[in-house]
Design a protein that fits this description.
This protein is an alpha/beta fold. Helices cover about 30% and strands about 20% of the residues. The strands form 6 sheets. Strands 1, 2, 4, 5, 8, 9, 12, 13 and 14 form a 9-stranded mixed sheet that branches. Strands 15-18-19-20 form a 4-stranded antiparallel sheet, covered by helices on one side.
């Protein structure tokens, strides 16, 4: 396939940008939409250089706005990473690292900032890790305007829960909320999609386009991939290729859905007055370092995520190579909307990166891993990542092992430099210790119920 479909999609989306206001966009967005696509790797998107046509809609959004090339997630799995995305705080500073901790009331979320400045706030989310009431990620939305679309259903064949793609329902619910809004007031909408996450179940039309012949035993289920991660099963080259292709099919399926949603926003005269921010909570492993899924490691296939920003007052076609972080999402959205933050946050306002300025020098961190199986027990938060520029250190508190990588020379993290660089390791570990000295304790909640445990197990989180 050539580039024509992508070019046509780009032209169609750019055409929507001039459908109102006489072709003149306002200088500041009236509304804001934050879209989180769970488990989305940037290196599987065309705008990040991928050769398969998985993402014409997101490619067009990137071409019409700013694309951040080097973005680090604050955690390698959904719950703590989204808590960071929606607060601008690292897990050690918002206290949500596992399923028995919740976001403290004293933390003012992105949605609460919008609500307190007169915005209507809406959310449609598609996973227990974001939607379950006890984690309190819905602060600032209100019960009627925070919708959790359950991502699991009973599988009659296996008598177990399985996940399925609910993007259509997420979009339909978002449209319903926006139709019922007060048109005299601006809004903030948060959408979370689980469609790219396993189980891999793309529709036949996308499977035919992206997935080649395969006669192996894989089904794409999370349950099966957990067995691979735990060493109970192994994969060959054909298995890994099939998984990647199924992943690509799911990305394109969701990308087409987003294209239809963006077109609807244009029809509703909302497209040109709205800020769009698209990102993810983490990536996915396809055995780059010997494993699958996510949550346990801090290599780039897990921590590097996309970040696209487009809307009034934002330049088109800009690419930012400065390393940034998922904790920057909340401060950046607030700055773009002209809303002052009511509390200190770890993240930074990224607008200087595309307006001729620079960011202060800082280190980036990632933490709160989970489901590490050690001596038959599952433990969490035993690994940490600290990064200064292209220098990245991985620390394992259980094994005592350190790994040091130079991402400028070794993007695949295949050459551990820690043995020959003890001073650099010691320096970065000292920075990590200083960061952890400010750790706050999470607010403890009851452990998951049996029903919740079954759901979390189906999602690969127990």
């Amino acid at each position: 396939m050539g580039n024509r479909p992508r070019i046509r999609a780009l032209a169609a989306l750019l055409g929507l940008l001039a459908t109102c206001c006489g072709g003149q966009a306002p200088s500041r967005p009236r509304n804001a939409i934050l879209i989180s696509i769970d488990t989305l790797r940037p290196d599987h998107l065309g705008c990040y250089g991928y050769q398969r046509e998985t993402s014409p809609t997101l490619d067009a959004l990137a071409a019409a706005g700013v694309r951040f090339d080097d973005v680090t997630a604050a955690a390698p799995w959904t719950l703590p990473s989204h808590a960071s995305m929606l607060t601008g705080l690292y897990p050690s500073h918002h206290g949500v690292k596992n399923h028995e901790e919740r976001l403290p009331d004293k933390i003012v979320t992105l949605a609460e900032e919008f609500r307190d400045h007169g915005y209507q706030t809406f959310a449609v989310v598609n996973t227990h890790n974001v939607g379950a009431e006890q984690f309190q990620l819905g602060q600032g939305f209100g019960d009627k305007h925070f919708r959790y679309i359950v991502e699991t259903e009973d599988d009659a064949k296996t008598m177990r829960l399985k996940t399925f793609n609910s993007g259509d329902t997420v979009v339909a619910t978002a449209k319903e909320l926006l139709r019922e809004r007060d048109e005299d007031k601006p809004f903030f909408l948060f959408l979370h999609f689980y469609d790219v996450h396993s189980d891999f179940t793309p529709k036949s039309e996308y499977r035919e386009r992206f997935v080649g012949p395969y006669s192996g035993r894989l089904t794409g289920s999370t349950t099966q991939l957990v067995k691979v991660r735990d060493g109970e099963e192994t994969l060959n080259e054909a298995d890994v290729r099939w998984l990647r292709e199924m992943y690509d099919a799911e990305i394109r399926q969701l990308d087409d859905l987003l294209g239809r949603f963006f077109a609807w926003l244009g029809e509703e005269k909302l497209r040109d007055e709205t800020l769009f921010v698209v990102t993810s909570d983490h990536g996915e492993e396809f055995q780059e370092h010997g494993s699958v899924l996510h949550g346990r490691t801090y290599y780039q296939e897990i921590l590097r995520v996309p970040l696209l920003v487009q809307g009034p007052g934002i330049p088109s076609g800009k690419v930012v190579t400065t390393p940034v972080d998922g904790v920057d999402v909340t401060p950046t959205i607030l700055a773009l909307m002209g809303i002052p933050s009511s509390m200190p946050r770890d993240g930074l306002d990224l607008t200087p990166t595309w307006s001729g300025g620079t960011l202060p020098e800082r280190l980036l961190f990632a933490e709160a891993d989970h489901n590490n199986k050690i001596d038959g027990e599952f433990v969490y938060d035993i690994r940490k990542m600290v990064r200064r520029g292209d220098e990245k250190l991985l620390v394992d508190s259980h094994t005592g092992k350190d790994e040091l990588y130079d991402l400028a020379q070794d993007r695949g993290e295949s050459h551990d430099l820690s043995g020959g660089s003890p001073d650099r390791v010691r320096d970065l570990k000292g920075e990590l210790e200083r960061f952890l000295a400010g750790e706050v304790q999470g607010e403890v909640i009851p452990p998951p119920t049996e029903e919740e445990r079954k759901r979390l197990e189906a999602l690969g989180y127990l």
